[in-house]
Design a protein that fits this description.
Elements: H1 6-26, H2 31-38, H3 42-50, H4 57-67, H5 71-86, H6 102-113, E1 116-121, H7 132-139, H8 146-159, E2 171-177, H9 178-182, H10 188-202, E3 207-212, E4 226-230, E5 239-243, E6 248-251, H11 254-270, H12 274-286
């Protein structure tokens, strides 16, 4: 297995879940039947295969024995389980611990582990590319107290460190609805800072910022925002992340992810090229 760092730790959890589920399915077994063999509840089996949580090495060993997993895969999965039990991600430490909901912790882990990130956002600049004061203006719309808002602002700033890695920075493609450029979140000064932030990011070779203009008319992503993650380990495949007012979730089933991949590719033909998109962003900043 590759050296363990803040990216691979997050990826261990999803690799473990996927592999355990695939081993079970390859044997033609359902989760409740396997749970019964070990005197477990079906809910416990479901957690092992679907939840972003630490897993006991002993549980993995029992399941691998029962599924007759190959030795190399067995060792790999036990190693994954050990990492989920012994390592903590930065968002599990102070001052972030207890301030970030579990569903968003999963998002942070996958975002940190991704090789490519593709984002479509119709309403506001995505958190991964937000300037500090713009982030605070967005967070102020929530019902959270001021201290929690500041912690969340710090989380947004810290997660952006993946864009500045000297090695292994993800390839990022951001697609923004033109309405985002026209809505002065936080006032003219804050909005201008944010637009300058986008221009700066677009200068990085691994980051693309493009605008979906009003002139595109009706388009295939009018259902709302989404994020796509792809990974070096092909076992994972591409994942789709959807977020709403109260929570968010990750789709890993290929049939559910495929429509979002298709929509992003269709947006690619409708969006302004990067050079023109940057001109649109500069024009919006000049108009503030």
């Amino acid at each position: 297995m590759a050296a363990v760092d803040d990216r691979s730790v997050a990826l261990c959890r999803i690799l473990l879940r996927l592999q355990l589920r695939r081993l079970r399915q390859a044997r033609g077994l359902n989760a409740s039947a396997v749970a019964k063999v070990f005197g477990w509840s079906t809910a416990r089996m479901t957690r092992l295969e679907t939840k972003d949580t630490a897993v006991e090495v002993g549980d993995v060993r029992l399941l691998c024995d029962y599924y007759e997993a190959p030795r190399e895969l067995r060792d790999e999965l036990e190693n994954y389980a050990l990492i989920t039990k012994t390592r903590k991600d930065w968002w599990e430490e102070k001052p972030y611990k207890g301030k970030i909901p579990p569903w968003f912790q999963a998002c942070l882990g996958l975002e940190a582990a991704a090789r490519t990130i593709r984002i479509y956002q119709p309403e506001f600049v995505p958190g991964l590319t937000q300037a500090p004061e713009y982030a605070r203006a967005i967070l102020a719309l929530s019902e959270a107290d001021e201290q929690t808002q500041e912690v969340h602002a710090a989380v947004r700033a810290k997660r952006q460190s993946i864009l500045e890695r000297e090695e292994g920075a993800p390839s990022v493609a951001v697609m923004l609805n033109e309405a985002i450029l026209r809505r002065p979140v936080g006032g003219s000064e804050v909005m201008c800072q944010q637009l300058q932030r986008l221009i700066h990011l677009a200068e990085q070779p691994h980051i693309t910022i493009r605008v979906l203009p009003f002139s595109a008319g009706a388009h295939p992503a009018m259902h709302g925002p989404f994020t796509l993650w792809d990974f070096e380990d092909e076992t994972v495949g591409e994942l789709a992340y959807l977020e709403n007012l109260v929570d968010g979730g990750v789709h890993s089933d290929a049939e559910k992810v495929a429509p979002f991949v298709d929509v992003f590719e269709r947006l690619d033909s409708l969006a302004a090229p990067q050079e023109l998109s940057i001109e649109m962003i500069k024009a919006a900043a000049a108009g503030l």
